[in-house]
Amino acid sequence: MVKIQQIKLPVSCTKEDLENKIKKLLKISSDDLISWNIRRQSLDARRKPDLFFVYTVEVAVKREKQVLKKVNNKNIMSTTPVNFSYLKADKNITLKKRPVIVGSGPAGLFCAYYLVKAGLKPLIIERGEDVENRLKTVEKFWETGTLNTESNVQFGEGGAGTFSDGKLNTLVKDTKGRNQEVLKIFVEFGAPEEILYQQKPHLGTDLLIGIVKNMRNYIKSAGGEFSFSSKMTDIQIENGIIKSITINDVENVETDCLVLAIGHSARDTFMLLKNKNLPMEAKAFAVGLRIEHLQTLINLYQYGQENSSYLSAASYKLTHKCQNKRGVYSFCMCPGGFVVNASSEEKRLAVNGMSYHDRDSDNANSALIVTVVPEDFPGTDVLRGMEFQRNLEEKAYKLGKGNIPIQLYGDFVQNKTSVSLGKVNPCMKGNYSFANLRELLPEELNTSLIEGIEAFEKIIPGFSGEDSVLSGIESRTSSPVRIVRNELFESEICGIYPCGEGAGYAGGITSAAMDGLKVGEAIMKKIINFS
Ligand SMILES: Cc1cc2nc3c(=O)[nH]c(=O)nc-3n(C[C@H](O)[C@H](O)[C@H](O)COP(=O)(O)OP(=O)(O)OC[C@H]3O[C@@H](n4cnc5c(N)ncnc54)[C@H](O)[C@@H]3O)c2cc1C
User: How far are the Cα atoms of 73, 144, 399, 513 from residue 23, in angstroms, in the given order?
Assistant: First the structure.
């Protein structure tokens, strides 16, 4: 296979333009071209509004050696694609007790996918509803404020990431090709092919719901079983080995292989695991507020034009180091998206962001967050970070009188409650009320946020516009705890596999899914080694 990098074409280019460029670069005719595919597409906006895509492609050609000899170009080379492979259980292996996976978020689903591919028949239990019913429950919550604490934006089939922007990029480096494998699996279940090569691939809630359903049906057809509205409420351990779990306080299921893919919001389950002395440690995370701007402001900055007929809504990634040494950075940016009420507990309010595949709302939003470390919430309780989140969410709920508390940035700086909106109309899922958000966070975090927003104004003109809309609280940025595991991905309790974001080993959809594949592989290795 031949790899060609740095192919630069205007964003208006067609597949045909790219193919002609490939043939020209390789000095070959159509007859010599067997096939090609895009490996990477990134945007070059340095000469905006003239915008270019920069491609890396893989090409199969006749007489490859001769072609490579003839072209002599540093951006053209031979390559061997890395394909992810699955361990397989020997047909004769029959497990007395089947693996149980708690949680059907990306970590749980991809672990289940690995195990059924390997020939096992896991049981996947999920405290929330299946995705079809969950959608109705979440939409009812956004319309009426009636919260189902077991099925909501955090809990239910597909996990926290289902009602999201569905950004799939991750910083996790992986030599085994798991990142690409996760993207391929999303495509296998209905995601558009371009996520395989886009610099910033994203799905959007509307596509995610279909993909989750298709993945469930595949896992069931391959021998897996799902049980929804089924919460793990207890675990039974004997001599340091997992023996069984209890579902909904009534049903007992025996297992010697338990995957805990419970996510960052399973607070009651964290309490259960702490009481069962599962080794856990407090972990740093971040909190902050969401900010909304007109999407055209961000497009103008990134593309040099308010709208592009070739590109979807523009995104940004910003960081700032404050004088007080704290970092302020943008997180989970949702172009053309919505701020959502992402609460999962009564009288506690948390926000997050989502978008649909077209990213076509009027506003861009992101969380502006500040890192908080265990030292910020004194004490020895391993779950004190979780209590810190809860306190902030209780305040947010009170400030907004049960609705999302919002404030214009100008009023936030002046420490007064807003009374009317400016040119930015909130794009929100869930009702909102004006409040003074300065009363939400510790003052040191408020001043850090203001310093950060003023610094971002120098990068994106208009970012600190007085009528930019702030909302809060963004508290579920990652897990407040890590459930300790060893290099075999197992807890000190034999047979328990902490997995994904809730266990403190992932941050985001793709890295959680990759961790699911890793844990699936670790389980297979143990079974094969000990059979
Ligand atoms: C609104 C929102 C938008 C987001 N946007 C993005 C984005 O655009 N891109 C991105 O990369 N990340 C995004 N994230 C983060 C991403 O969703 C998570 O990182 C990812 O879902 C973590 O996957 P996970 O499988 O580890 O946990 P989760 O997805 O949280 O899944 C855990 C599952 O376990 C279940 N569970 C918990 N306790 C129990 C129990 N006791 N018994 C049974 N089931 C249980 C829960 O109901 C849940 O379904 C977003 C998150 C939210 C909330």
Answer: 14, 58, 62, 37
Q: From CA 432, how far away is CA 58, in angstroms rounded?
A: 49
Atom of ligand 1 nearest to the CA of 507: 19
Angle 64-71/15-26 helices, nearest 10 degrees? 80
Structure token digits, residue 198: 């886009």
pLDDT on residue 151: 98
* DSSP, res 162: G
CB count within 10 Å of CB 491 equals 22
Q: Which letter does DSSP use for residue 160 in this model?
A: G
Is the distance from the beta carbon of residue 426 to the nearest atom of ligand 1 less than 6 Å? no
| Residue 92 pLDDT exceeds 80 | no
Mean pLDDT within 164-193: 93
Using the mean position of ligand 1's atoms as its centre, give its distance from the Cα of residue 508 in Å: 8
Residue 530 has pLDDT above 80, yes or no: no
| Dihedral of alpha carbons 112, 202, 210, 156, sign | positive
Rounded to the nearest angstrom, the distance between the alpha carbon of 486 and the centre of ligand 1 is: 23
Residues in the chain: 531
What is the DSSP track for 191-209? --GGGGTBSS-B--HHHHH
Q: Read off the tokens for 202.
A: 């994203």
Q: Are 57 and 317 in contact (CB under 8 A)?
A: no
Condensed to tens digits (0 to 9), the pLDDT of residues 413-440 reads: 999 999 999 999 999 999 999 999 999 9
Distance linking the first and last C-alpha atoms of the chain: 39
Mutate to test the pocket of ligand 1, among 255, 366, 509, 519 (most ligand atoms within 8 A of CB): 509
d(CA 350, CA 53): 37
Give SS3 for 280.
strand
Residue type, 479: S
Q: Which two structure tokens, joined as six digits, stand for 492? A: 């000190």
pTM of the model as a whole: 0.96
Helix (H) or strand (E) holding 270: helix 267-275
Query: Are residues 341 and 142 in contact, defined by beta-carbon separation less than 8 angstroms?
Result: yes
Cα pseudo-dihedral 304, 369, 472, 142, rounded to 10: 70
Helices (H), 58-130: 64-71, 106-117
The average pLDDT across 499-528 equals 96
User: Closest by alpha carbon to 429, among 351, 503, 360?
Assistant: 351
Sheet holding 2-10, edge to edge: 33-44, 52-61, 2-10, 76-78
Task: Give residue 88's pLDDT.
Answer: 82
Find the mean pLDDT for residues 256-277.
98
